[in-house]
């Protein structure tokens, strides 16, 4: 699957752990995607996949979902894109 990452980001706080996102497009697909990520300790990741700009063909998002589930390299590439942008939250003043 040929995809192009458009934007990624991630923050960390003691309260929420790691929270990130990756915006990307897939060659031949009509809509762009967003993968939202969360991990308390940065090891086990939960994610959700959405269309970035409005709804799109269900068949296409299912293809991307299947690819993420089946292709560990793709899965970890997307997580890595977000982790590369990690910004830690500054502690609140006491």
Would you write up a description of this structure?
This protein is of the alpha+beta class and 94 residues long. It has one domain (3-85). It has 2 helices and 5 strands; from the N terminus they run ββββααβ. It has helices at residues 58-70, 72-83; strands at 3-13, 17-26, 33-39, 46-51, 86-88. The longest helix is centred in the C-terminal third of the chain and has 13 residues, at 58-70.
Key words describing this protein structure:
94 residues, alpha+beta, 2 helices, globular
| Radius of gyration over all CA atoms, rounded | 14 Å
How many distinct domains? 1
DSSP strand (E) fraction? 35-45%
Helical percent range?
A: 25-40%
Number of helices: 2
Report the uncertain regions: none
Query: Order of SSEs, N→C?
Result: EEEEHHE
Could you say which overall geometry the principal axes of the C-alpha atoms support? globular
Mean pLDDT: 92
The beta-strand count equals 5
Terminal residue distance: 49 Å
| Helix/strand/pairing category | alpha+beta
User: Looking across the biggest beta sheet, what order are the strands in?
Assistant: 4-3-2-1-5
The major β-sheet equals: 5 strands, mixed
Secondary structure layout plus pairing:
Blueprint: E1 3-13, E2 17-26, E3 33-39, E4 46-51, H1 58-70, H2 72-83, E5 86-88
Parallel strand pairs: 1-5
Antiparallel strand pairs: 1-2, 2-3, 3-4
Short summary:
Helix content is 27%, strand content 39%. With 94 residues, the chain is an alpha+beta fold. The protein has one domain (3-85).
């Amino acid at each position: 699957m040929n995809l192009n990452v458009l934007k990624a980001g991630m923050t960390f706080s003691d309260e929420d752990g790691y929270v990130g996102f990756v915006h990307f497009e897939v060659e031949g697909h009509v809509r762009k995607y967003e993968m939202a990520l969360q991990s308390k300790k940065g090891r086990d990741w939960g994610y959700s996949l959405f269309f970035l700009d409005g709804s799109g063909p269900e068949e296409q998002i299912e293809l991307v979902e299947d690819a993420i589930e089946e292709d560990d390299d793709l899965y970890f590439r997307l997580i890595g894109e977000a982790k590369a942008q990690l910004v830690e939250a500054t502690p609140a003043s006491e």
